[in-house]
Amino acid sequence: MILGTAFLIFLYIILKYVLSWITYYNNLDYRLGESTWRFSYDYPVLGERDISDLDDKEFVRLRRKKNKIVLLMYSLVFIMFISSLSLLSKFLLFFFD
Length: 97
Fold this sequence. Notes:
By secondary structure, the chain is mainly α. It is built from 2 helices and no strands. The longest helix has 40 residues.
């Protein structure tokens, strides 16, 4: 149980680090929006188009970096969920066994 708790704390620290990167990317360009949990797809943008890498290279590459970080965040949340269920089952087995 101690290793499971330490693992969850470690994953939580990594999650906070990843969330700070998402906030950083959101602040670099206003077109990415303020959402932490949403992928940035090719939504219509007023002004220059951003559909392909040829139209607006910097924004498209920034959006792709942010989407990779958001995917990492979702992966961490999923791993933390599975780990917390495992920790809860060990906790319950310890007390009810």
